[in-house]
Amino acid sequence: MRVHALGYDMNGDALCIVCRHISEDAPVAEVAHDRDGVVQILCASYDHGAADAVTIHLHHVAPLLASLDLPTVHPGQYAQRTEGGWAVTDMPPEEEEA
Ligand SMILES: [Zn+2]
User: Fold this and answer.
1) Sequence-distant contacts of 84-91: CB under 8 A, at least 24 apart
2) Most CB atoms within 10 A, among 22, 35, 67, 94?
3) Euclidean distance between CA atoms 60 and 49, whole angstroms
């Protein structure tokens, strides 16, 4: 199963990391596309630790991602929701896991 996300055609069975707040329907504030291709979806309201990470298949969040109207986010970039829309930023090398 292929899913279209972040401007890419992705493997829907790939693993994706969401914070548990997103899995509990918190609004999405940041979507990161790691250099290794992993997509991470986070809310804005909490300090996230390892205990907050939920790993799921990308196809489960494909409808959520589609609803966000995200721009293309290349590997090594992340998108943050701002008042003016999504702002895409390059990840600093030392914060690859952020
Ligand atoms: Zn969260």
Assistant:
1) 91/32, 91/34, 91/35
2) 22
3) 22
What's the confidence (pLDDT) of residue 45?
A: 74
Among 65, 71, 27, smallest CA distance to 46 is for 27
How close are the terminal C-alpha atoms of the chain, in Å? 28
Which residue ranges make up each domain of the chain? 2-89
Percent of the chain with pLDDT over 70: 94
Q: What is the band of 93 on the pLDDT scale with cuts at 50, 70, 90?
A: confident
Q: Cα(90) to centroid of ligand 1, in Å?
A: 21
The CA 20 to ligand 1 mean position distance, Å, reads 6
The pTM assigned to this predicted structure is 0.90
Q: What is the 55 CA–ligand 1 centroid distance (Å)?
A: 13
DSSP 38: -
